[in-house]
């Protein structure tokens, strides 16, 4: 009996440590995300030449419209070039793209990845650019996006992440995905910048000093989660990542549960792989060099996703509440109040982070699918083996009749 009690107590303490720290972490950054980051002064006034790199794999449904819209910028048209990197597109799509004033690069790989496509494109287009701006094949930039990014480079930044917002909220899962991204924007980008730490990268809507990006990407070989590998390399080298909250990129949100499940499985797999790969380096960088940015990013690789944090903390809190109500003596050693506080901090983090525009009836209806999203995320934890060794394509194109 003592052995069982010790095992239960050890598990309790481990769970409280893991989820307790995670709740404090998201609460602190969510709270500071309510404020504005300190602005740097402009140190140079220069118009740079941009390569707008848009890799796509079988994205025939959306790529032509995305290419057209990418050309519609307030920035001088002679100072940016839209480069479509076409992997496995239909011939009819390629013909439509060839009629646009863009640069079309056709690629083919035995195993397709975003990093391979980007590296190949930069080899083809050469080094005549100052900034590499990366979009997904479903992304649409707001009219002044490039102008805002150039302004950030004029303040001395080499890496900039824009604010990705939902292009569509046509299904309950799309609404949940849109909210999830805004929560992450608030905590891992805006909140981090307010406290002087680097913004997290998302994978698109991001811009880099061109030469810097090309040389760094040459050593990135990720099948999935290339932005995570790139981000870790940048932060290890103490490169600050800026976040532009007012520079908007419209991004298509997942609309169906199976797409949601596959996408999250790929993300979770990438995070755990990079945590194992960088955990020792992160600890060393923190202790020996005081590199908080890098250590913080390594922790993010093993921190619980927000849906799992909310769901599991809620379940564990109910377990402790039930234990208090039903038993006068208990095997549990962690005081219930710890879980009550953890739940409160987690809920407040979400309340602070969710934009006001999502407080409405549509979101209430979408919340009915939250338990399903939680279960899908939980099940994904048991299906991670090999998920980062093969390319998992997320098909884009807004569903009709939803």
Structure description:
- The chain is an alpha/beta fold.
- 52% of the residues lie in helices and 12% in strands.
- It contains 14 helices and eight strands.
- An eight-stranded mixed β-sheet has the order 3-2-1-4-7-6-8-5, with helices on both faces.
- The N and C termini lie far apart (55 Å).
List keywords for this structure.
single chain, alpha/beta, eight-stranded mixed β-sheet, 14 helices, 8 strands
**Rg from alpha-carbon coordinates:** 22 Å
What's the end-to-end separation, in Å?
55 Å
Oligomeric state of the chains in view:
single chain
Taking all residues together, what is the mean pLDDT?
91
- Main beta-sheet annotation: 8 strands, mixed
The helix content, as a percent range, equals 40-55%
Category from helices, strands and their pairing:
alpha/beta
Number of helical segments?
14
Uncertain residue ranges: none
Number of strands: 8
What string, H for helix and E for strand, traces the elements in order?
HEHEHEHEEHEHEHHEHHHHHH
Strand content of the residues, in percent? 5-15%
Spatial order of strands in the largest sheet = 3-2-1-4-7-6-8-5
Short description:
It is built from 14 helices and eight strands.
Helices and strands, with pairings:
Blueprint: H1 2-32, E1 50-57, H2 63-70, E2 80-87, H3 91-98, E3 103-107, H4 114-125, E4 131-134, E5 140-141, H5 145-153, E6 159-166, H6 172-194, E7 206-209, H7 210-217, H8 226-236, E8 241-251, H9 257-289, H10 292-302, H11 306-326, H12 336-353, H13 361-366, H14 370-380
Parallel strand pairs: 1-2, 1-4, 2-3, 6-8
Antiparallel strand pairs: 4-7, 5-8, 6-7
Helix pairs in contact: 1-6, 1-12, 6-12, 8-9, 8-10, 9-10, 9-14, 11-12
């Amino acid at each position: 009996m003592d052995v069982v009690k010790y095992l239960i107590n050890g598990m309790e303490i481990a769970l409280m440590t893991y989820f307790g720290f995670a709740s404090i972490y998201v609460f602190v950054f969510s709270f500071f995300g309510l404020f504005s980051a300190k602005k740097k002064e402009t140190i140079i006034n220069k118009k740079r030449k941009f390569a707008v790199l848009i890799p796509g794999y079988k994205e025939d449904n959306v790529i032509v419209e995305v290419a057209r819209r990418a050309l519609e910028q307030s920035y001088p048209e002679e100072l940016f070039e839209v480069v479509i990197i076409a992997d496995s597109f239909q011939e009819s799509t390629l013909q439509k793209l060839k009629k646009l004033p863009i640069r079309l690069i056709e690629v083919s790989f035995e195993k397709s990845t975003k990093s391979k496509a980007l590296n190949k494109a930069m080899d083809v287009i050469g080094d005549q650019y100052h900034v590499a701006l990366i979009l997904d094949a479903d992304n649409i930039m707001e009219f002044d996006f490039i102008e805002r990014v150039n302004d950030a480079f004029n303040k001395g930044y080499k890496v900039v992440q824009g604010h990705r917002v939902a292009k569509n909220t046509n299904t309950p899962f799309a609404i949940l995905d849109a909210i999830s991204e805004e929560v992450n924007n608030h905590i891992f980008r805006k909140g981090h910048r307010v406290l002087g730490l680097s913004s997290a990268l998302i994978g698109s809507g991001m811009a880099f000093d061109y030469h810097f990006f090309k040389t760094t990407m040459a050593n990135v070989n990720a099948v999935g989660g290339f932005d995570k590998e790139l981000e870790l390399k940048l932060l290890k080298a103490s490169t600050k990542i800026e976040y532009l909250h007012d520079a908007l990129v419209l991004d298509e949100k997942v609309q169906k549960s199976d797409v949601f499940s596959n996408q999250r499985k790929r993300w979770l797999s990438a995070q755990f792989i990079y945590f194992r790969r960088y955990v020792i380096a992160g600890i060393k960088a923190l202790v020996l060099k005081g590199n908080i940015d890098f250590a913080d990013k390594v922790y993010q690789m093993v921190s619980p996703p927000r849906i799992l944090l909310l769901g599991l903390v809620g379940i564990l809190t109910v377990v402790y509440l039930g234990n208090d109500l039903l038993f006068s003596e208990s095997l549990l050693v962690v005081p219930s109040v710890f879980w009550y506080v953890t739940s409160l901090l987690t809920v407040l983090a979400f309340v602070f982070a969710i934009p006001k525009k999502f407080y409405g009836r549509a979101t209430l209806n979408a919340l009915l699918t939250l338990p399903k999203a939680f279960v899908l995320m939980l099940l994904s934890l048991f299906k991670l083996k090999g998920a980062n060794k093969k390319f998992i394509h997320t098909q884009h194109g807004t569903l009709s009749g939803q």
